[in-house]
Amino acid sequence: MPPASGKRSRALSHWPRRVLAWVCGLILLLLMTLTVVDVIGRYLFNSPLIGATELTEVLLVSVIFIGLPAVCMDDEHVTVDLVTSQMPDWIQPFRKALLALISATIFGVISWRLWVYGSQIYAYNGVTNSLRIPVGPVAWLCSVCAGVAVILTLYVAARDLRRALRT
User: Fold this and answer.
1) Domain segments of the chain: what residues?
2) Spatial distance between the Cα atoms of 32 and 65, rounded to a whole number of angstroms
3) What is the rounded CA–CA span in Å between residue 102 and residue 97?
4) Rg of the chain (C-alpha set)
5) Residue 113: how many CB atoms within 10 A of its CB?
6) Rounded to an integer, what distance in angstroms lies between the CA atom of residue 100 and that of residue 139?
7) Which of 2, 42, 50, 146 is most exposed by smallest CB count within 10 Å?
8) Do the beta carbons of residue 104 and residue 154 sit within 8 Å?
9) Mean pLDDT, to the nearest integer, of 132-144?
């Protein structure tokens, strides 16, 4: 029996989160394995893993930017509400919408600059020192993820503001 349309749409909305969670989880598992192998090689065999630092840098920046759309999708940014918790309830949706616009603008600038930076690095064939990993495509990946974060931040803000205005 096919699932009800409500369940189907809910399941479809969860698949991007699951994909992002799996990708980030695999990258973190790879980071952990890389670190363990490097430490064992360094301290037990006096032979560190060649390029471990470069791989760690590339994987770390990847997991951060690939995870950014998931954070924006769930509106789970780190927040401090020392002052805002004292504000009246009616102002909260507007405050959140304004902050979302500011966040989206910042993510947009980050995306734009990463794209420009990635293009410059790609133009002169910039690679890492040991493993010769091309850096331009990594910057482009980060730029695209930041661009997706812009779209999701604006979508979540509009959705939440619309819900708040209905009540």
Assistant:
1) 5-166
2) 18
3) 9
4) 21
5) 13
6) 24
7) 2
8) yes
9) 96
Amino acid at 10: R
Only one residue has tokens 């919408």, namely 97
Choice among 13-17, 103-107, 134-138 with the minimum mean pLDDT: 13-17
pLDDT on residue 61: 96
Is residue 16 within 8 Å of residue 73, measured between CB atoms?
A: yes
Kindly list the distances between the CA atom of residue 163 and the CA atoms of 79, 81, 95, 102, 149, in Å, as whole numbers in the listed order.
21, 22, 14, 20, 21
Q: Are 24 and 63 in contact (CB under 8 A)?
A: yes
For the stretch 88-97, contacts whose Cβ atoms lie closer than 8 Å and that sit 24 or more positions apart, written own/partner, are 92/164, 93/160, 93/161, 93/164, 93/165, 94/161, 96/157, 96/160, 96/161, 97/157, 97/158, 97/160, 97/161
For the cut 80, the answer to whether the pLDDT of residue 7 exceeds it is: no
User: Residue type for 139, please?
Assistant: A
**Residues 81-104: tens digit of each pLDDT:** 778 778 888 888 888 888 899 999
